[in-house]
Write a structure and sequence with these properties.
The complex is a heterodimer of chains A (118) and B (407). Chain A has 118 residues and is mostly helical. Chain A has a domain of 59 residues: Cytochrome Bc1 Complex, Chain D, domain 2 (Orthogonal Bundle). In chain A, 42% of the residues lie in helices and 0% in strands. In chain A, helix 4 packs across helix 5. With 407 residues, chain B is mainly beta. Chain B has 3 domains: 78 residues, no CATH class; 196 residues, Sulfite Oxidase, Chain A, domain 2 (Alpha-Beta Complex), CATH 3.90.420.10; 111 residues, Immunoglobulin-like (Sandwich). Chain B is 9% helix and 32% strand. Chain B has 6 helices and 27 strands. In chain B, the strands form 6 sheets. Chain B has a 6-stranded antiparallel β-sheet with strand order 1-2-3-4-5-6. In chain B, strands 8-7-16-11-12 form a 5-stranded mixed β-sheet. In chain B, a hairpin with a 5-residue loop joins strand 7 and strand 8. The longest helix of chain B is centred in the middle third of the chain and has 8 residues. Chain B starts with 7 loop residues before the first helix and ends with a strand. Classes of the chains: A mainly alpha (118), B mainly beta (407). Chains A and B meet through helix 1 and helix 3 of A and strand 3, strand 4, helix 3, strand 9 and strand 14 of B.
Chain lengths: 118, 407
């Protein structure tokens, strides 16, 4: 735990700087293409939210642009904060919501993702 | 920072995790970690070209570097480097990134618009390298009190790499700036799901864009950029927050007026005062786009809750960085900030890089010790002892105490 930084890495780092400096040179080798022959897949480990009344509203309105971990990772937020958040989705990011849909969505978020009442 | 939940014993039982000194608790499965703040449970997720990283979100991907990585080397390995995208279609599909398909265009208020492949960029312009820290504006947001909506990050949305590319200034000069040029606008290939969502576009003043430190980079630590870190081309703006370091950079537009897109005029703004801070919970009177990084330092060799032995000296170690002025001094306290001692600074690998610091420490007697590191740069700028606050949760840079037990 208390070793100094990896000596080889550090040496490579310092040598690299000495060799290249900030002065230029014309490269000769072609660039590597890491994609050659590869088809990489992103994981599809989508989370879901708490199964409670109103979840279907979230699933219908909140998954087209991003995964639901955007919601579940937030700290507990008050009703006012959730309202502002959902309004930001509508006004700033163009979520296709009408203002009268928002209270029902916020009901779900407040019931499941707000600070615990004492 | 404190342990949460009762599973501290679970953590200690896990030899590998404990040895790595991770500040989080291992959960039920090997692939869960608990960040040290409320609602901080995260999956360790495996993405292409990456080791398992702390997943904040999966679509688009936002991945954080486990903090123990910063104790392993000054350069953050590519496979551990954090990932931050904003828009749904990110990273852009590989078909658009193949060498024969991907092009960078330079247009707008220029005399000679350019369309260049990465190979053309690389062979036509001088190749240069710089070692620089890339840090997300919202790094450490999870520690803000009161908490703030957004990416709930620990300290792992930062990294230091050796970037290789060509100077942005050389490319702009080849295109020939018109005298009316005022800002340079950057766009990448990531796109939103709906056209109504503002594209992720950022702008820099022309004077800044012409500084020789700014690179159009195609390599990171001697390898092509990873897909999730911008392959095949990204902007490198040493000293500035990551929001400007556009990935899969495909379009540079020189404009004669201030660019007013969402991610400049509404997103990524800070209170317009020298500390970028206001009273917690209030609203700033005036804001400006976030810009240069402030001074930070971390203890990396010991993490919260670690045990040290009385009579066995340990080497306290960590990193410090700023926006490129250069670190002048790191002071270390082992008694919660009452007395401070100067640490030795490791060799500098560049003013924009992580700087190593070390200080031997011999715990004199058993008990609890609060360790702190505090860096100062060559301008005399330092770190506050208490956290500052702003409404978006940006730029945390206070001293981060680490509590250890001597036995």
């Amino acid at each position: 735990m208390n070793r100094p930084f990896h000596p080889i890495l550090l040496a490579a780092l310092l040598l690299g700087i000495a060799a290249h400096g900030i002065s230029g040179e014309v490269p000769v080798e072609p660039l590597k293409n890491p994609f050659a022959g590869d088809a990489w897949k992103l994981p599809t480990n989508q989370v879901t939210l708490k199964n409670a009344p109103g979840l279907e509203l979230i699933q219908a309105n909140c998954v087209m642009c991003h995964s639901l971990d955007y919601v579940s990772m937030q700290p507990p937020l008050t009703r006012a904060q959730w309202t502002a958040g959902v309004d930001k989705m509508r006004v700033r990011f163009g979520a296709p919501l009408t203002t009268n849909q928002i209270p029902a969505i916020v009901d779900y978020l407040e019931a499941n993702y707000a600070p615990k009442k004492p | 920072m404190k342990w949460i939940s009762s599973s501290r014993r679970d953590f200690l039982k896990r030899g590998a995790w404990a040895a790595a000194g991770l500040p989080w608790l291992a959960g039920q499965a090997q692939d869960l970690v608990q960040m040290p703040f409320e609602n901080g449970e995260r999956v360790m997720a495996k993405y292409p070209q990456k080791r398992p990283l702390i997943q904040l979100t999966s679509r688009p991907p936002q991945l954080e570097t486990p903090f123990s990585v910063f104790n392993e080397s000054l350069l953050t390995p590519n496979d551990a480097f954090f990932v931050r995208y904003h828009l749904t279609n990110s990273p852009p599909p590989q078909a658009k990134l193949q060498p024969d398909v991907f092009r960078l265009t330079v247009k707008g208020n220029v005399t000679t618009p350019l369309t260049l492949s990465v190979e053309e960029l690389r062979t036509r312009f001088e190749n240069v390298e710089t070692v620089a820290v890339l840090q997300c504006s919202g790094n450490s947001r999870g520690f803000f009190q009161p908490r703030i909506a957004g990416g709930q990050l620990g300290h792992g949305a930062m990294g230091c790499a050796r970037w290789r590319g060509v100077r942005l200034a050389d490319v702009l000069r080849a295109a020939g700036l018109e005298p009316t040029a005022r800002q340079v606008v950057f766009n990448g290939l990531d796109t939103p799901f709906l056209p109504a969502t503002p594209d992720f576009v950022k702008a820099l003043e022309v004077d800044l864009a012409l500084q020789p430190e700014l690179l159009l980079a195609f390599e990171m630590n001697g390898e092509p950029l990873p897909w999730l870190n911008g392959f095949p081309l990204r902007l490198v703006v040493p000293g500035y927050y990551g929001t400007y370091w556009l990935k899969q950079l495909s379009e540079i537009t020189v404009v004669d007026a201030e660019y007013k897109g969402f991610w400049m005029s509404t997103g990524y703004r800070i209170p317009d005062d020298p500390c970028a801070a206001i009273a917690p919970g209030t609203t700033p009177k005036r804001t400006v786009p976030i810009h240069r990084m402030n001074v930070r330092s971390f203890i990396t060799s010991l993490t919260d809750g670690a045990e040290v032995r009385v009579g066995t000296p340990v080497l306290l170690r960590g990193i410090a960085f700023d926006d490129g002025q250069g670190i002048r001094e790191v002071l270390v306290s082992v008694d919660g900030g009452r007395r401070w001692e100067a640490a030795s600074l490791g060799r500098s690998v560049g003013n924009y890089a992580f700087r190593e610091w070390t200080l031997p420490w011999d715990p004199p007697k058993g008990g609890r010790y609060t360790l702190m590191a505090r860096a100062t740069n060559r301008l005399g700028q330092s770190q506050p002892l208490e956290p500052l606050w702003n409404p978006a949760g940006y730029m945390r840079n206070c001293v981060e105490p680490v509590a250890v037990n001597a036995v």
